[in-house]
Amino acid sequence: MDAYDLQSAIDSSGLPRVFFFNGRLLSAGDLRTEQAARRHADLWLGQGCGDGVVYGLEVSEASAPGASNPVLAIKAGLAINRAGQALKLECGTDIALASQPQQVGETGSGCFGACAATSSGNLFSASSGLYLICIAPAESRSGTVATSGLSGQGGACNTDVVTDTVMFRRITLDNELRDLQQNETDLQRLRSAIAWRCFGIDGQRQLAANPFGLAPANIDLADTLRNSKAINDCEVPLALVYWTGSGLQFVDNWCVRRAPTPRRNSRDVFSLWASERPWNQGEALWQQFQAQLAQIPLPQQAAFVARQQLRYLPAAGVVPIAEQSGENGFVASQFFAGLDTGNALQLDAEWLPGLLQQSFLLPPLDLTQTQPLCLLRIRENVAAYNGSKAQSLLVFARYSLLRGEDPRFNYAHFGVEHFAARYT
Fold first, then answer.
1. pLDDT digits (tens, 9 = 90+) for 205-253
2. Residue 422: which pLDDT band, with cuts at 50, 70 and 90?
3. Among candidates 281, 418, 394, which has minimal Cα distance to 336?
4. CA distances from 320 to 191, 275, 286, 377, 390 (A)
5. How far apart (Å, rounded) are the C-alpha atoms in residues 278 and 272?
6. In angstroms, rounded to a whole number, what is the distance separating the alpha carbons of residues 142 and 125?
7. pLDDT at residue 256 above 90?
8. Which of 103-112, 114-123, 254-263 has the highest mean pLDDT?
9. Which of the chain's termini has less CB crowding within 10 Å, N or C?
10. For residue 205, is it left (φ>0), alpha (ψ between -120 and 50) or beta?
11. For the stretch 27-62, what's the b/e string if a residue is b when 16 or more beta carbons lie within 10 angstroms of its beta carbon?
12. CA angle 3, 45, 33 (to 5 degrees)
């Protein structure tokens, strides 16, 4: 291949646009070329921002619990797919999970051919199971216009308006997660184990063993599904749902939902670690734990034991605690039973946001192994509980997180009266 000279236009990497001038005859093809140029430029911008959910698009159950034909409620929001296309749901929408998919045109038209056919192993089935809910591009056509010179053939191309919109798909995950369904009998343990698999924690542990080389193609569940063609670059995962004959058992957004993450060209392990992906996954892992905790029914909280009913704990988390019988929350002695925790220390509230954010970069705690935890009470929360019966809470964290936030060297331990005022 011949080398290009400096400051010379590289035509092979260009984006053709129509050159307009007075007197030029324009055809529909010219206008489509101009539209394609503008949309390709938008796609490049979207690819630079990264794929993921920008905001909204939370999935929840809209039907009554135990319904045989469950309905999902999806909030308005915005996502960007790997092709760079913005997927906007303008208003909240209900989706019937048991409905048969409609035959649609080329969903890849909005992505200019990026959407290939999906694998037959993950096609729609009309039975209950584990499913991934994705948002994908679609288009609808409305209205007709008068035509001229088409010899009565205008019916195929006389559409007035083409609307770029979205649709939702469900992809069965029974093949990928069947072993967990067979081995885990407790529903909360199953949900936590599925999240562990979705985050690809076992695969990430192996990266540090030999970081000098290419990162594996399949790190988390989304990578596996893309490489097997179960989902394509035009789809963005939103949630995982577990549907049985008794109805929807849970809807888990954060085990597959990710914030927009730019892709890097290099696939080596160091580039992976230096990217935004570890932080975004750490946040999603923490959010998944907190969301699951919040959805555990109140009657089950008093006897809940984390080591038996969860697969993992994030590097730091917040647990609502019932200090007395009749209060809402978990019983601390039950929740942390069998874990190496020690006595709870106290921490000022101002340190908590930073502590949680630092935890996003640390791996979760594998509850099949014994690892020490530090329990922390927030000084302001203790005062609020004693004064107005606010919800009591406990913060747990890896000991490696407690460096600058050491609870022994702040007001929570010594009290304000032990600190002299600073004068200038």
1. 778 777 876 667 677 888 888 888 889 999 999 999 999 888 889 999 9
2. very low
3. 394
4. 20, 33, 15, 11, 10
5. 8
6. 30
7. yes
8. 254-263
9. C
10. alpha
11. eeeeeeeeeeeebeeebeebbeebbbbbeebbbebb
12. 75
Report, in angstroms and rounded to the nearest whole number, the Rg of the chain calculated over CA atoms.
26
Alpha carbons 392 and 383: distance in angstroms, whole number: 10
pLDDT for the residue numbered 149: 66
> What pLDDT score was predicted for residue 106?
41
Please count the residues of the chain.
Answer: 424
Contact 288, 252 (CB under 8 A): yes
Q: Please determine, for residue 277, whether its predicted confidence score (pLDDT) is greater than 90.
A: no
Q: And the tokens for 394?
A: 């406990």
CA 209 – CA 241 distance, rounded (Å): 34
Instruction: Provide the total of helices (H) and of strands (E) in the chain, helices listed first.
Output: 13, 16
> Mean pLDDT throughout 297-306?
93
Residues above pLDDT 70, as percent of the chain? 84
Phi, psi at 339, each rounded to 5°: -105, 150
Amino acid at 216: P
Cβ contact 171:230 at 8 Å: yes
Cα(252)–Cα(59) distance, rounded to whole angstroms? 8
Q: Which two tokens stand for residue 152?
A: 């009565």
pLDDT of residue 305 exceeding 50, the answer is: yes
Contacts with 352 (C-beta within 8 Å, 6 or more apart), sequence order: 378, 395
Sign of the alpha-carbon torsion through 142, 144, 145, 147: positive
Where b means 16+ CB within 10 Å and e means fewer, 333-354 reads eebbeebebeebbbbbeebbee
Report yes or no: 80 and 51 within 8 Å, Cβ to Cβ: yes
Give, for 248, the enclosing helix (H) or strand (E): strand 247-252
Q: What's the distance, CA 253 to chain centroid?
A: 6
Query: Cβ-count burial of 199 within 10 angstroms (0-12 exposed, 13-18 middle, 19+ buried)?
Result: buried
Burial of 255 (0-12, 13-18, 19+ CB in 10 A): buried
Bridge partners, 136 (sequence order) = 167
Structure tokens at 166: 């979205």
